[in-house]
């Protein structure tokens, strides 16, 4: 009985490790996409002190800006979902 518990626990640890590796790859990809994004947009801090003059203008993203924005949103959602999966696996399987 103890050997099956140890093998199941080892398998659970391997699954969690695989998810953690995927999460690390996603986080590095998010950093790279964030560095590649356009720097024309003002930060939120400049909006607080009145430095953002284009705060309420209607501007659409085009080309590479739109692609990077979609990638960042997708990677952020994937990061969030994988974080929840790791949390659930850790709390249910390893108890």
Topology (SSEs and partners):
Layout: H1 2-36, H2 44-48, H3 64-93
Query: What is the CA-atom radius of gyration, in angstroms?
Result: 20 Å
Residue share in helix:
over 70%
Beta-strand fraction estimate: under 5%
N- to C-terminal separation?
16 Å
Protein name: Protein-export membrane protein SecG
Organism: Mesoplasma lactucae ATCC 49193
Family: Belongs to the SecG family.
Keywords: Cell membrane, Membrane, Protein transport, Translocation, Transmembrane, Transmembrane helix, Transport
Summarize the model shown.
The chain has 95 residues and is mainly alpha-helical.
Question: How would you characterize the overall build of this protein?
Answer:
The protein is mainly α and 95 residues long. Helix 1 (2-36) packs antiparallel against helix 3 (64-93). It contains three helices and no strands. The chain has helices at 2-36, 44-48, 64-93. It is elongated and about 60 Å long. The protein has one domain. The model has no long low-confidence stretch (mean pLDDT 80).
Question: Which key terms come to mind for this protein?
Answer:
0% strand, 3 helices, mainly alpha, 95 residues, SecG
């Amino acid at each position: 009985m103890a050997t099956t518990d140890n093998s199941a626990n080892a398998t659970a640890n391997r699954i969690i490790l695989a998810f953690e590796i995927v999460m690390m790859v996603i986080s590095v990809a998010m950093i790279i996409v964030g560095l590649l994004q356009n720097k024309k947009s003002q930060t939120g801090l400049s909006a607080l002190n009145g430095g953002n003059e284009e705060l309420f203008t209607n501007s659409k993203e085009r080309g590479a800006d739109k692609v990077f924005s979609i990638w960042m949103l997708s990677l952020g959602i994937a990061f969030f979902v994988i974080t929840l999966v790791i949390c659930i696996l850790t709390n249910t399987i390893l108890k």
